[in-house]
Amino acid sequence: MYKEELKKILEKFSDFEQLKFYNIPDIDLYMDQVTTFVEEKLGYLKRNEEDSALTKTMINNYTKAGILMPPNKKKYSKHHMVFIILTYYLKQILSINDIQRLFSPIVKSINSGENHDKDLENIYNCFLEIEKNEMDKFIRDLKDKISLDDSEFKNSEDSIGQTSKKINIDKEGINSLIIMVIMLVVKANIEKRMAEKIIDKFFE
Question: Would 87 be classed as within a structural domain?
């Protein structure tokens, strides 16, 4: 039964629409408009429904930390939006200090008046391509690891009851899920450490 639930999680996990660069507003937005936009477009990434994808406090903190350029007359440009969206993803793994160091060369350059329209568009589009490729690979690999064979997903209502929401998992299933979570965290931790090493070496 737990494998059936894992299959449902995987299907829902991969069912999202990427926010394309051309769908990020070209006009400058006030802070309320920024938070509303991010909530609508990236809300699916929240762990809990009651969480906020982005708040005014977060935006102010990003600006104070140097991740964002100061707004122009309290309005945020497409440049700001790209940094905000990327920060939303990166902060799941990296510290705010590391994100600031990572973006610092471009942010300082923009603050000095240089144009980085093409650079930011290229970085953002590469991010989308990486996300799609990695998501597809992740789904394939995880399905292989847990042997998600449709023949294993039989109707088990008789064993758990039609109205029951509890998933009955035997000892072997629990052990498999613990190992799976450890595997995912170990992989994420190794990649996180490598990302930090790159920041430490090249983004002083």
Answer: yes
DSSP state of 67: S
Q: What is the pTM of this model?
A: 0.84
Residue 139: inside a domain: yes
Q: Is the predicted pLDDT of residue 31 greater than 50, yes or no? A: yes
Helix or strand run (H / E) with residue 197: helix 171-202
Number of domains present in the structure of the chain: 1
For 196, list phi and psi in degrees, rounded to 5. -65, -40
Q: What is the DSSP letter of 45?
A: G
Q: Which domain range does residue 117 map to? A: 2-154+164-202
SS3 39: helix
The candidate with the shortest Cα–Cα distance to 88, out of 42, 128, 57, is 42
What pLDDT was estimated at residue 1? Answer: 65
- Per-residue model confidence as pLDDT tens digits over 141-187: 888 877 644 444 343 333 333 333 455 667 777 888 888 899 999 99
